Amino acid sequence: MALTPELNKQTKLKEVAEIPLQAPTVDNWSQILTFKAKPDDLLICTYPRSGTTWIQEIVDMIEQNGDIKKCRQAIIQHRPPYIEWARPPQPSGVDKANEMPAPRILRTHLPTQLLPPSFWTSNCKFLYVARNAKDCMVSYYHFYRMSQVLPDPGTWDEYFETFINGKVSWGSWFDHVKGWWEIRDRYEILFLFYEDMKRDPKQEIQKVIQFMGKNLDEEVVDKIVQETSFEKMKNNPMTNRSTVPKSVLDQSISPFMRKGIVGDWKNHFTVAQNERFEEIYQQKMGRTSLTFCMEL
Ligand code: PPS
Q1: Among 2, 99, 140, 192, fewest CB within 10 Å belongs to which?
Q2: Are 42 and 127 in contact (CB under 8 A)?
Q3: Nearest CA to ligand 1 atom 19
Q4: CA of 1 relative to ligand 1 center, distance in Å
């Protein structure tokens, strides 16, 4: 079996249909593309750094009826597999998903145009979480810095250009969010916002419970709210990625669970960058009905 060449900060991203992705994912593309979705799959979909880990933990706690012990049996990366994850000779995300009994919970960062086509014909459910572009961009910058398997992001100013041009891994934030938003009425999609989850976690968790067709007691819901708070998840070794080797995620550079707030972009964007970003945002998103909360 061929081994994937060691990934490191010098490794360049490859592309599928002009979307930059990590090289092993692109090398495994035919397996990903032909993945067979099932009608009772629930696919968690996010642009990177939008609250994937948070919603994964919420969904898992709902699935386990609030049983913390069951949720802590495995680290979060091993709970729903990423369908596009590939690091041969380890089993790929598709391999792991294929072994799972139904009903499956899966996750992806793929934009709509790259999703394996069987998802569109299988009648499955999609849970999309969107985060405002500026906070997402800041969070992704720090993730790029600490990830040892993504290219060097350069300075904040250099990364600013890379991000707005959609040249980061998984492509353009604008196209990703717009793509999923535009199809939200055509498929069974629950579209959530990170900022709403911060403002009123209980209300958003109730939406997920209903979407999953579950019925949980009020006290279980309250427990899920508490156990999925930023502070709890930051200190939980099953969710904070502390088990990932430093050669992959160097948390001495920036923690995986960094600040977990709305509005940190104000500590990073210069006035000029903000004006430029607003202009680009209008060009790319102006015609959508999407609105984001930029501070709480
Ligand atoms: S990844 O790498 O794409 O899987 O990252 P992802 O999990 O999508 O997003 C990481 C950001 O989400 C924050 N986070 C949370 N915020 C609030 N509450 C909870 N429980 C929570 N869990 C994760 C995490 O801190 C990252 O955001 P930043 O702004 O960098 O802190």
Answers
A1: 2
A2: yes
A3: 230
A4: 35
Which is the CATH superfamily of the domain at 15-285? P-loop containing nucleotide triphosphate hydrolases (3.40.50.300)
| Closest C-alpha residue for ligand 1 atom 13 | 260
pTM: 0.96
192, β-bridge pairs? 129
Domain locations in the chain? 15-285
Burial class (CB in 10 A: 0-12, 13-18, 19+), 157: exposed
Instruction: Specify which residues 19 forms β-bridges with.
Output: 16
Question: Which atom of ligand 1 approaches the CA of 259 most closely?
Answer: 31
Q: How many angstroms is it from 2 CA to the middle of ligand 1?
A: 34
Pocket of ligand 1 (CB under 6 A): 46, 48-54, 135, 139, 142-143, 228-230, 233, 257-260, 264
Question: Considering only CA atoms, which residue is closest to atom 5 of ligand 1?
Answer: 49
CA distance 39 to 190: 16
Residue 23 clears pLDDT 80, i.e. is over it: yes
Which residue, by CA, sits nearest to atom 18 of ligand 1?
A: 230
**Which amino acid belongs to residue 239?**
T
pLDDT score for 5? 55
Q: How far is the CA of 139 from the centre of ligand 1 (A)?
A: 8
Token duo for residue 267:
């500590």
> pLDDT of 257-269, one tens digit each?
999 999 999 999 9
Nearest to 290 by CA among 135, 114, 132: 132
Helix (H, G, I), strand (E, B), or coil: what is residue 16? strand
- Chain segment 195-208, per-residue pLDDT in tens: 999 999 999 999 99
CA-CA distance, 161 to 138, in Å (whole number)? 13
Closest CA to 63 of 101, 111, 96, 92: 101
CA of residue 171 to ligand 1 center, whole Å: 19
| Catalytic site positions | 109
